[in-house]
Amino acid sequence: MSTIAPESHPRSSAPRKTIQTFRQKKERGEPIAMLTGYDYPTALALDQAGIDAILVGDSLGMVVLGYENTIPVTINEMLHHCRAVATGAKSALLIGDMPFMSYQVSTEQAVQNAGRFLQEGKMSAVKLEGGRERVEAVHAIVNAGIPVMGHIGLTPQSIHALGGFHPQGRTTTTAKRIYEDALLLEEAGCFSIVLESIPARLAELISHRLTIPTIGIGAGSGCDGQVLVVHDMLGLFDRFTPKFVKRYADLHAEMQRAFVEYIQDVVARRYPAGEHSVEMSDSEWQLLLGELSEENGK
Ligand code: KIV
């Protein structure tokens, strides 16, 4: 990174997308494209590409901070990344993911922490995990004027209760529960719901029954929109790649290639070359040498 700003960054001039944009897209049958983002340069690139929404997901615990799962992520870690994303993205709808234990203890705590995402994190909406057990919290947060995105199916914050990162809703009983949860979350005021890792036919059925848009991840093509973890689709997360991820780049390999080339250049003194160095005029240089030799002669 250079600390000298050559010029201001090109900015997206598209108007800010809102939860109304989500609703209109569903009404028109236009798919919604969402990705996660955790930092300023990625947010800038996502925004300039025309993404509808950026989710500052608590997946950052795994793909950015290297934690084993999303459980240790704190609200302050989330807010730190939310602010960076908000600085880079001027057009996408910005959604902050409420981390584990920031909304489960009480409804008051849920509303207060959701408010922090807007006031301190500069987000426009929050997301939280869970179905019927979250209805009261969703209702209270929405009543405070904060748009809420739901998240059902595979909910990573419940990984210990679910017994691992496994697809959900593959039996009649579990599928019916997910279906009912979706209806309850819509009724509680969610503006959209993430459906993670559930059978495609169940996700399609839910998407048809709801008036709010569904955003699928590992839930087939019948959802109203799609989301992926940006590090997964860019090939930046090396630990595992879920089956549903399509890789659009291999940036881990590209980073390694660049790092190896840099090390080789430094070792061989190929870098920095003349064009990377600061110039000084011959006249100033001669004056300096003259002054130094005078001082040395004293
Ligand atoms: O944290 C996250 O990135 C998410 C998405 C997988 C939906 O919740």
What value does the average pLDDT take?
95
Structural class: alpha/beta
| Percentage of β-strand residues | 5-15%
Biggest β-sheet description: 8 strands, parallel, barrel
Strand order of the largest sheet: 1-2-3-4-5-6-7-8
User: What ligand molecules are bound, each kind once?
Assistant: 3-methyl-2-oxobutanoic acid
Query: Could you tell me the number of beta strands?
Result: 8
Whole-angstrom Rg: 24 Å
Can you describe this structure?
With 298 residues, this protein is an alpha/beta fold. The protein is 43% helix and 12% strand. The protein has helices at 19-28, 40-49, 60-63, 75-88, 107-119, 135-143, 159-162, 172-188, 200-209, 230-233, 251-267, 282-297; strands spanning 32-36, 53-56, 93-97, 125-127, 148-153, 192-196, 214-217, 225-228. Strands 1-2-3-4-5-6-7-8 form an eight-stranded parallel β-barrel, surrounded by seven helices. The protein starts with 18 loop residues before the first helix and ends with a helix. Residues 5-10 have low confidence and may be disordered. Bound molecules: 3-methyl-2-oxobutanoic acid (KIV). Residues 36, 55, 57-59, 97, 151, 194, 196, 217, 227, 229 line the site of 3-methyl-2-oxobutanoic acid. 3-methyl-2-oxobutanoic acid binds at residues 36, 55, 57-59, 97, 151, 194, 196, 217, 227, 229.
